[in-house]
């Protein structure tokens, strides 16, 4: 059985979501990231690639980079760029690119499931990339990048997702050629059903995010 739980997300306000949205940290170099954030103090790259706010001579894996990521995240929370939901929720996230859509549930998966191989892996990881994400998670005290998991389809989850998408989203914007739409699932019965449906699911599979998964598990073990 897989453990998937709702959580109180720290997420951008609706007004700033399109400015906060950023490409993954590992698809551009630091110079490119510096150019991407010009005139945009809200970009999540200030957290995900915090070296862009330091002198270019600073080593990208120096402790000061992770401290800057932590400070930037905490400052954005303090400034109200981010809000936090009052109760644990699940979220529906839809992305559309070139006419093709993918839709998923956003929730918390279990470190124990990762360690016990209920969450299946198919890639080897690099120690240096793991250590980078370990430091980032540990200093920020947050999982700052999503992990893409797949699972065998569950009709009850599909029904809840479809019903949720009939309502008004909290975000709906296009960035970097991708339309991003998010809904919040607050219905207690729906949340309970989703958790129960995952509990009846034998395995989850990592589609993307092996290094982030490994890093999260190692931070958890160390703590």
Features:
single chain; 223 residues; alpha+beta; 4-stranded antiparallel sheet; 3-stranded mixed sheet; 9 helices; 11 strands; 38% helix; globular
The succession of helices and strands, N to C, reads EEHHHHEEEEHEHEHEEHEH
Helical element count?
A: 9
Q: Tell me the structural class.
A: alpha+beta
Helix content: 25-40%
- In the predicted model, the low-confidence regions spanning at least 5 consecutive residues are none
Strand content: 15-25%
Sheet having the most strands: 4 strands, antiparallel
Distance between the termini: 25 Å
Order of strands in the sheet with most strands: 5-4-10-9
Kindly summarize this structure in a few lines.
It contains nine helices and eleven strands. By secondary structure, the protein is of the alpha+beta class.
Topology of this structure?
Layout: E1 4-5, E2 10-12, H1 17-20, H2 30-36, H3 45-48, H4 63-78, E3 82-84, E4 90-97, E5 100-106, E6 108-109, H5 111-115, E7 119-120, H6 127-140, E8 148-150, H7 155-164, E9 171-175, E10 178-185, H8 188-199, E11 204-208, H9 210-222
Parallel strand pairs: 7-11
Antiparallel strand pairs: 1-6, 2-3, 4-5, 4-10, 8-11, 9-10
Give a written overview of the molecule:
With 223 residues, the chain is α+β, with helices and mostly antiparallel strands. The chain has helices at 17-20, 30-36, 45-48, 63-78, 111-115, 127-140, 155-164, 188-199, 210-222; strands at residues 4-5, 10-12, 82-84, 90-97, 100-106, 108-109, 119-120, 148-150, 171-175, 178-185, 204-208. A hairpin with a 2-residue loop joins β9 (171-175) and β10 (178-185). α4 packs parallel to α6 and α6 crosses α9 (210-222).
